[in-house]
Protein 1
Amino acid sequence: MALEHIRNFSIIAHIDHGKSTLADRLLQATGTISERDMTAQVLDSMDLEREKGVTIKASAVRMNYTARDGQTYELNLIDTPGHVDFGYEVSRAMYACEGALLVVDAAQGIEAQTLANLYMALEADLEIIPLINKIDLPAARPDEVAEEIRDLLGTPIEEIVRISAKSGSNIQEVLDSIIERVPPPKGVPEAPLRALIFDSHYDAYKGVIAYVRVFEGQIRKTDSLRMMATRKNTTPVEIGIFSPQMRATDQLSTGEVGYIATGLKSVHECRVGDTITLTDCLAETPLPGYRKAKPMVFAGVFPVEGEDYEDLKDALAKLQLNDASLVYEPEISQALNFGFRCGFLGLFHMEIIQERLEREYDLDIIVTAPSVEYEVLLRNGETIRIDSPAELPDEGEIEQVREPWMKIQIFTPTDYYGVVMELVTGRRGIFIDQEYPTPHRVQLNFEIPLSELIVDFFDYLKSGTRGYASLDYQFADYRADDLVKLEILVNQEPLDALAVIVHRDDAYRKGQALVSRLKDLIPRQLFAVPIQASAGGRVISRANIKALRKDVLAKCYGGDVTRKRKLLEKQKKGKKRMKSVGNVDIPQEAFLAVLRLRDD
């Protein structure tokens, strides 16, 4: 199709503002999917996506639409992931477009992630078409939200389209706006091929399937292709378009969106953001913006039953086929035996992987408290990176410990200003500045250590603001601070799975809280069990779990006191011998106690 009749666009929105429902209505309005085949959230193929109301995996679809002028247009919708953890994938999907539909909930208004994705779209120089969704809700306030959008973007109120994606009202107006306002793609069809990979997934029969947008040149099924970042060469098994199922075609031309079944066996060879070119006519430069996905959050994943280790290994390998951002390596824990140290993009990504392991592969697993990657400068001048507290060297060898800091934006009604300030500053956050995009809402900008953000920060933010606040974050830099390893010793044995790296000022409070909680969680043994918290080479808190005792004096009805003492001494010796050889059974709840230190 001619370039001037192609429109490439994405939909950006905060979680649960109706992005997937709007995509469904567009597919119906253009006749891409028949009424018989229609299901809710048709582009969200995973059960988890439907349950959580958030797109986890990007997808694309081609729609043909005949406009008012009688001309048929090719509309390529590139649906982006809907969570901040997948920010890089969102940026690549946006780079593949020329326009974006900005969907704002008529009841909730603009939220932090709406702003974050909007700024990303403006950075990619996209034409923004604002939409107010859910206008049929009883709590809808479309006029106020329209004013918020006007203040933010400068769009005249009469140009903001008001829709109900659920009922399908005004969807035709959305399609007409896309054709009128989104510019057609640019590119030179005769130039050497440059196609952007904005997502990929693994197929057992066709290998890695790359989702691509062609910027210059053409792709034919017989062409020999090269991935410019990984320098991998391949001849496609199949090329085609999404409608929304994959449909094979003979070629993909400049400006078009489609897929390439590469035949490659790993998504590591076909990375998101890479540029595809022809091996016999190489492009001079790749498309800008490519970088390798970098895990930010790390946790140990262990099978509850030791014999499930191989099943867990196979399950992680299969998940990694579709998700190059998941990294893992074998790990041995004194308390939990054999498992894996896994790296995730963020806490939501970790939650998704955990649920998929339990649901899709029917595994019982223990996930340890999440940690971040620290930079440790040793006294000998060497710098090492560690992602597990157990790997932190002795304090005498350490010159400096640096931790990752994040820039965060919290968008909240002004009523909760004090609550948010108290929450962030109580976690070593630094206030930067504030903005008032609308009269009754404030955007607060902070910097905060990632370790303070990953465990329960979002839960406390939501509960403290009654669900009205929203959060977005980006990596800032590594900064040195006075950090120490907080170790837990049970019966004189250190438990590596319960070790955490904390600020020295917080070590005593957290150590005491953890010891108190473990005392309640670990069942009594036949011998006394001491639980200790150690930081900076000294014990800072201790509690004892009393032994289960048999009443050895039950048969003594009077008599000489020495007889009683003899029986008690005999019992004491037996307990002492048992303590030296006995193992303490630690329940799974004990490992989760680290996550709930602030619940008290």
Protein 2
Amino acid sequence: MESVIVLMFSQVIIKIVGLIYKIYLTNKEGFGDRGNAIYGAAFQIYALFLTVCSIGVPNAISKLVASKVAIGDNKGAYRIFKIAFALFGFLGFACSSMLFFGASCIANIYLQIPEAEITILALSPSVFLVSIASVLRGYFNGRENITVSANSQSIEQIFKALFTILTVENIASISGNNTILMAAGATIATTISNLFSVTYLYKYFIKKKKETWQEVISSKIHKKESVLKIIKNILVVSVPITLSAFLSATTKTIDALTVVRILRNLIGEEQATLQYGILNGKVDTLITLPYSFNIAFATALVPTISAAIAKKQINDAERRIKFSILVTILIGLPCSFCMSMFSKQILELLFPNATAGGEMLKYSAWTIIFVVLIQTINGALQGLGKVNVPVIAFAIGAIIKLVFNLILIPHVGVKGAILSSILSHITSFIVCLASLKKNINIKFRIDKFLLKPIIASIIMFVSSYSLHINLYNVISKKILLIISLLFGIIIYFFSIMVLKILSEEEIFMIPYGQKLYKKLKNVK
């Protein structure tokens, strides 16, 4: 579980650093919500291409490698890695080429944001780089070396923030704050940072190659499989994961393809672009922050459950799934509460030069709990080998998203896109949960998994909001918001303990849980 903590902190760092450069861009003169619209629309298309050849890869490779390593077949695990490296390297190069040569068509016809063409061109090499990085991360994760993957992602995000700020500043001074060129500069920084990440992973691989090779040649258990069979095994696992990730990313791409297209006829092109910029640039950025705490559990579940199933340790798999879902609820629920109730204040704190979007964030915050639960449940389903279920769930969710976008946006504006997202995520969550309960014997107590977490979240919110009201005219609003949120977190932690949501066994499953339990026991 220590690896989960490492990955969790890595994801937190990634999100915080990402938020820093997003705050910089949004508040930068000449960029703002319009720049976010150009940058965000191009990034959503890039994300779709990225999904095809990389997003599902780490989990697929880690699952197959973990299954081989669990039975002592290190030679088979290494062979899977080599073939996957060649396969997804080629696929990544093909997708990069398609994005590069199709940039004009995508920007002008599909997005109807011509300014995004240069931004798409600047992003195109990243698809190939991330494809290579994903295979390396999957191999390391399968060997339960999650720390390397976490470090590479942290390096990538830190360099991305650094290069984004430096590049945009230089372009702004040369071009006189040209929004289009600044958006392109921000995406060039993404490509450069991905190059640094791949370099780090490759150097680590070379460093450990001798040690890995010793394990390979000393493998006592190995059943040689043909290249075609290994490719088939990889695709059998990766294609459904990729499809589920692709369909999940589609919900955001649907906004990129429909929001501006529909709203421009109602409020004009400029206002429509600004509305999409607020939704994609600020709101979506903020509601993805809690995912960083939860993605560690979802990522770690895949190889852990795969190894448990390979060893016929079903009870251990059930126990880990239940614990991860409980922790996911304890992470996601308070985030939805706080981000919804303090939406306006949060935007004023982070984006003083572009504060619009309070209402959007207020409603969008309620997608957090469902998205993080879907993350964890899908990790469990992938570990169990039920990789087709997320595909079906996200396909249904994407259809609901598209239909309700087309119905609601003309009547309630951009809020229609938010409401359709909530409905989409709820539907996907129900499908995934039903499948999980069908495939493994897990019973969820309503008081433990629902009632007590809701009570703890309400206590946290009431305490935090009461403090905010009582000190509203006493100290600075920005400082008060930070103090109120920190106070709420402390109250929430003690509420979890007082309500005894976590059992002794579950506390022990937390990294350094035994030390934590002893301290809690000392204070009764």
Protein 3
Amino acid sequence: MRQTARFCIGILIFISLAGCVDSSETENNQADFSVNADKVDPIDREFPGGRGADELVVYTARFGDSTGTNKYGIEAIVVNNVIRNVGGNNSRIPENGFVLSAHGKMSRWISEHLYPGLTVTISDKTLTFQETELTQLTKAKYLLQQAAENLNKNILHISISADSVSQLIEIGRGEIEKSQQAIAANQDATAKNSAEAALESARAAYYQSFPSRSSELRACWYRLKEKSPAELEATIRQYAEIGFNAICPEVIFGGTAIYPNAHPDLPQHPDFQGWDPLAELVRLCKKYEIKLVAWVWVYHVGRKDRSPLVATKTDWLALSRQQEHPSQVEKGYHFLCPSREEVQTFWLEVYSHLLKRYEIDGLQLDYIRYPVSLPTELGYCYCDTCRTDFQAKYAVDPLEITPENHSEKWQQWYDYRVDKVNRFVGKAGQLVDTIAPDVALSADVFPIVEESIASKCQNWDYWLQNGFLDEIYTMSYTHDAQTVLAESQYLANKLPDNIPGYVGLGPFMGFRPELLLEQISNAQASGVAGITLFNYDRLTPEIIDALRQGPFRREATLP
């Protein structure tokens, strides 16, 4: 392995997919890390491109022109042993390189560890990544190129200072040249300082090359951790300083509420007993001019060992085709049966009390669906109530039909379940209109309605077209910026004129700031009214800096 400048300090990490980690420091303090791929040029293509769950796959030119993978992953393109790009799927495979493609937990690994500029070598299935003296410079060059392209595309946007971005680009290029000259002269300290300065300027140029809209919703989902009003105010103050103008705190979850006296059958979560976080949120959001959207779980009520509702309302729980309460697809999740009138009555009572007691701006329904019901044999709900009711209407027990052998009856069974969810959303809309007409009712939904209906009996397009909702939030949790663009455009095309839509993005998946800003830009380009991030706890200092310099650098009013 060739010598590198001494400013490249790091740790040698060997990571196996079994989770075994061994680390040691190299003799020359070079920053190396290695990982074993699951496959190289897979032959078995049971999954798109042959990439299976949680796998890391290497694709070379021998495999074909492109990887053929689906949207549920992330890829790094390597040319001449240097990473040139990270993001996307179904990538073209370079003749003078290869593509690293990951799904699941390995997608997160790529997101957290790989970036343009890293040197990559492969031996059998072992990939070794090295930070050389040129790594920072390559990353800086990449960001400067992207900043120049963004500037060219967005130069007419009122929020972008072309002079400032152009100046940062020139400063970055100058520092790159200084660093290269210092490397050639073996002036390690100068090389290090100039490389760091080049990267700092490149990041600033890249961040500031994105538009900052004057009107949009900027929100985060948030799970409270605070133990007192003072701690909560510190969080909300920081939240506002970042540039957010709306917050979606988790108010009802896991069979509990964060506030006291929600309902005789819905206890306050033990972490918040002794005070009322929701009352404090109402006060603080008014003080800091933040829209308060109460995020509430509906049919999902938690796990058996943690949820009071699972323990006390066993007869309300949904049953799978296997006659089990916990989901096998969504491991351990318990859901209430959407068909039961007592379930709907219970939640409407809870929401009525909430709306009358607290001055919130929005009520947001989450898990407003059945448990994932694909594959069919693991689907829901087959409790006595559902089976008896359906059989009375259609003269057949749903346990006795399958989509393969009873297509017409099976479609009726699907429609029956979709209708149960539809009816409850309609009732919730009527309740809000009656008690608190200024409160916006919304729902968190999966981004493609056809897929949502097929797997979860969730037809959010019907809710929009029938005016049940005032707003809608999709969950585009992916590493693929092009998927975000496609799903955002899909949402924009579904929205009635009077209903705003917001795209939820997933930095919890381990995004680098560059990818998050690209996803935000793609969502904005679709014409939706704003973005929501999941979740606040996963915003790193680097992401916060990118937001402040980038799309949040000027204040935005709510749409």
Protein 4
Amino acid sequence: MTRTAPTRPRPTAPVSGAGRGSARPRRNSLMMADPRKRGTILLIGTGLVLTLFGARLVELQAVRGEALASAALDQRLRTTEIPAQRGAILDSSGEALAVTMEARNLTADQTLVTDPVAVAAELSPILGADPEVLSERLTGDRRFIYVAKGLTPETWDRISALRLPGIFSEGTTRRIYPAGDLAANVVGFVGSDGKGLGGMEYAFQTELAGAAGTQTSEHGPGGRVIPTGANSVTDAQAGTTVQLTIDRDIQYLAQQALAEKVAQAHADSGTLVVMDPTTGEILALATAPTFDPNMPASGSDADRGNRALTDVFEPGSTSKLMTLAAVINEGKANPYSAFTVPGELTRGGKAFHDHNAHGTLHLTLAGIMAESSNIGTILASERIGGRKFSTYLKKFGIGQPTGLHFPGESSGSVPAHGDWSATSFPTIAFGQGLSVNAVQSASVFATIANDGVRMQPTLVKQVSHADGTVDPPVAPASTRVVSAATAKQVRAMLEMVVGPGGTAPMAAIPGYRVGGKTGTAQMFKESCHCYSGVVASFIGMAPADAPKLVVAVSIVNPRVGRFGGELGGPVFKRVMTYALQARQIPPTQTSAPRLPLTFGG
């Protein structure tokens, strides 16, 4: 067996710099290479970071810079509304019934109020408010909150002088009614936000309000305005001024006379209308009870409305004016025409009577008007028939809007002729079975006063703008209802009502010829379509030979007294006498005609 000799290992040369017998791996060369690699890596990393920072900087400054700057500015800007000056409401002579005064709303930024208790203690005596309530309102993280509204500028000056942190104000206005309750039910009132809630304030809300402006201010630390900051203002546009046809002096006396009679009669309410029949202008529109628009919450909902337009009632005997005018206009009778009037009349199976029981009467048409005979009126109306009569009711404006566009106005009602029953015609003829409001009733008499032409009632004389321009008045719509000759004959008959033998001699005015008609009827409630209460009325005109004024008085649910002559007549006399003098209408120079009321039969 052959053996191979073992191979002897070759000696290894020692590594330079190493001690004898050392056999370490090649670490030193690697350590010498690491700093260079690390430097390269560090350089690359730094470059990447700087690139990212640079890109971000470019994004923030070049790409999003404008948007971010705008956002930062927005945080420093506060925009407040500049309220427009609300237009005034004036009477016919230009006297103010509603005006707007400068005021301030007190506001707070809760995040800037460092000590709500201390700030509340400072504000409490000035505002007359509970400090605990104020403290609670000032505590929180809301940037804007109202503390008080409608402060006078003087009150704000006192608060501003305290330089309380987080307390600011904004401009606003206060609505003032310098005449108190005068024409309050016509003018209306505004809410806490300054918007109209009733009457003409509501009807003309858009025109009166104008257009609000804005003020934007830049605020620095502590919420103070930076004078040199980004501030801008958009001016507000003032509202229009509405001038009414209401004569404040006549309105004042009308309210006083009406309120006294309502109190004396222990009545629920009353209305009074004064109208110029030649123009349709309403010179006074009074209701009782009324309210003070400076404190609207102190009155009831009913007292804040305008009963002369919202409440409807059966006209009763005042409606006989339309019936007899239609009969005369159709040529079927005249004031001298004779009618035999029985004590009872049956139509459609129903027995009709007059308000006072009587036997057979021999009355002229003038006598039927003066005596206010229901039966005589039915007999006269049958000469023209129900269909023809219904067309006259429409021409007189019954069951139609007055044209005033007043909030809450009721148009009343009258059944269509096709719906009349056998008893409808006789009932409607003497004033039952239809409903009207007080202005509609006054308009009927104004039509006769104006020679048979119905002028659409109006409450607005003119509207003027802040720039001084004035909207030209719109001519009122007019409707020929009866001829001038018919109107003249009816006026002569109305004078007999106020004369001896009539139902309202207490309405006579010395020196003036006066014509009118009494009425006592049931009040119709639309809410339940039922009758509830009684309305005693008197409507008249003067001077009767050439009427310049119509006054309509209605007393609702009187408990002392009942009839229109005794309740409405004296109020009519008082108001009409004053109005004739106030408008300088001279006494009548002619004598009243003496029409026969009866005939020998």
